[in-house]
Each structure stands twice: as structure tokens, then as C-alpha cells.
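Reading a protein record of the kind used here takes only a little practice. The record below shows the convention in full.

——
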Amino acid sequence: MPWAADAYAPPPRWVPPVIGLGFERRVALRFLIEGRMQSLLIIVGVAAGVAVVTYISALISGLQANTLEKTLGAQAHITISARDDVVTPARERAASETLFTRTQPRDQRPRSIADWPALMAELETRPGVAAVSPMISAGGLGLRGEASQAIALIGVDLDRYDRIVQLRSKVVAGTARLSPGEAMLGTELAADLGLAVGDRFTISTGSVSDGARVTALVDLGVRELNRRTVVLPLRSAQSLVGLPGGATSLDLRLDDVWAAGTLAAGLQAQLPYRVEGWQQANAQLVSALNAQSISTAIIRAVVAVVVVLGIASVLVVSVVQKRREIGILRAMGATRGQVQRVFLLQGAVVGALGSVLGVGLALALIQGFSRFARGSDGLPLFTIALPPSLALQVALGATLAGVLAALVPARSAAALDPAQAIRI
């Protein structure tokens, strides 16, 4: 009989409820909302840490970029020049001999790089080299009436040299032009000699003197350079120095300024000339930049540790407060892995929300610095920008820190015995 079979049918086997990721997400958010004051405080703490790291990183990056721009704005990334004259000994000393000698160094004179046009053409084809410019450099005197000043004479091809140091952008008066018989002067030197655009003065290199007309005054960004720099056409400088057709150095500009050390070392091993990168010429500056980078890394590490400890402490308290709820969840069929994921999601949510709020706060700090931190000329001290890559990196780091901070509390919650947790 059908009704009898139905009456004596065995009871259905109990199947635990299927608890998916939606359940874990809902529980995690519910725990955060129930402890809203604790959650709010830790999110604000994470935001403060992210803001500090992001702002300091952007500030140091802007300061370093501004320092490099001012330092390398008036010099090449790599300079290739002829070696100094040295005295060659008459013969080698034998092992059994003792010689008492005193060698007087030779007086140095401008020396040209042999076959420099061919070397310049070869350097221009190298990967990473943006521009190459020949140069004549020597000392001399600038004369006008009774006034005289020691000068650093620079002979260049204006178009090529402009690609090295952007000389045209540094003109503060006159027009950047270097035809025969013309010169460009540093602003301080022009003031010392009483010169203005259009005036004539005399350049003397000892045995040779010549006149030149001032076409432009330039501000090279360094007072000492402005006080002694005279820029001439390459041919005029060759005649004054006594090196017709020569070049005392080749200046290189690179696509990546930090590749100068490696490329300079490679060129030094290949060429019979002196090769100097900007790092060698500015060793103290490089040390200062490295110290700034190390300080920034230490600050970021310390803030990350503080953020991790803050999130971990809040979640540990949450585990203690939610022992009964965790026990009930376990009794209803939630696995240890699901309980762990509940607290890992809490850490991720706290880290993500704190990251978004912290990046916004960092942007406000950057805007405030640009608005209020100004020099005597009323312009910002230097430009600070927040690259999207930096903001994303810090945000992802804070979110990951939140997940890592939740590992210990999550394992502790998953290890709770449901029976004991419910009885408490």
C-alpha cells in the first residue's frame, strides 16, 4: 500500500548547509559593523599610515628629481676628455738599483681628442645615448675697460649643446645665438664686467685675444657658474685656445641618468681617454640621494609594522569578543577554512578602506604643500606629483598588510572548539 510505504520511509539524511564566499563576506562585514568604533579607529590608523608613506615617498621623489634637474641642468651625464700630460721616465729602474729622483709635473695645456668626429658619430649610435656634443673648454680672462674677471671659456655647437643642457631655456635676456664674434655670458659675470646684451668685451687666453659681442645672458642655476661662464662658437674657441679643428671633450646625455655609471665604466675600458660620469663628479650629491632613499625605506617599513600590529590587535580582540558566534558558526557546519577566511576578509577590507582614505589624504597634503610652501619669488619650492603607480603600490601594500595582520587571529578563531566556545 502506498500510504504504508510512505509511513515507514526512512527519514532523510541531514546535509550540512552549503556556505559559500557570500556567507563569509556577509559575516566579515557584520563583525566589522558590530564593532564599528574599533573598525573606524583602525581604518583611520591605516589611512594615516598610508598617507604618511605616500606623502613622504612623493616628497622625496620630487625633491630628488628637482635636485637632479638643477645639478644636471648645467652639465653632461658623461664627459669624455683627453688625459693630462705626464712625464715619462727615461728608463725603467732595475731591481738592484736605488734611484733618487724628483719629477716635476708638467704644466697642463688644452689637448684635443684624436679624430673626435668619428668617435662622436660612433657614440651617437649606442643604445641609451640621447645626444653628443663636442666642446672646447679652457680658462681665460674677460676684459672690459679696467674691469677683468677670470672666466671659464666654453666653445660649443649651440644646437648640439642645447640637447645636452637645454641652454636656450636658461636665457634670461637677449637671444640664444652663437655666430662668429658672438658670446653668451652668465648673469653674474655680466654684472661684474658691467655688460648688457649688445655690448662688446675682450676675451684673452694668454697669447691670443679676441673681441666678442654679448647676444644673451644665461642663468645656469649655480651662482659660481654664472660668475665665470662664457659660451662661444666652437670655431672661435678653437682659435682662441690654439686647437684648430679640435675638441677637448665630448659631452653625452643619456635617456636614463642612472645608467651613466655603467656606461662610463664600459667606455673607460674601451677608450684611451678619461671618462667621467656625473656620479663621479657629484659624489656627495649621490651619497645624499642614497641617504634619502634609505630613510624613506625605513619610514615605510616602520609604518607598515605599525599598521600590521594595529590591525592584528583589533582582530585579536574581535576573536575574543566573538567566541560564541564563532562556535555557533562551527556548529552550523562552517569549516575551519571558512572561519579563517572571515577574518582574512576583515583584514583585507580594513586595509583597502584605509588605503583609499589614505591616498586621498596624501593628495590633500601634496596640494597643501604646493599651495603654501613657496620660495621668495612666490613660486613653489619644487614640484610634487603622485604617480598612479606609487599610489597603487602603497594601496596594494596596505591591503596585503591587512591580510597578513589577520593571519594569526584567523588561525586562532579557526582553532576554537565549538562546544567550549558556545558554553562560554
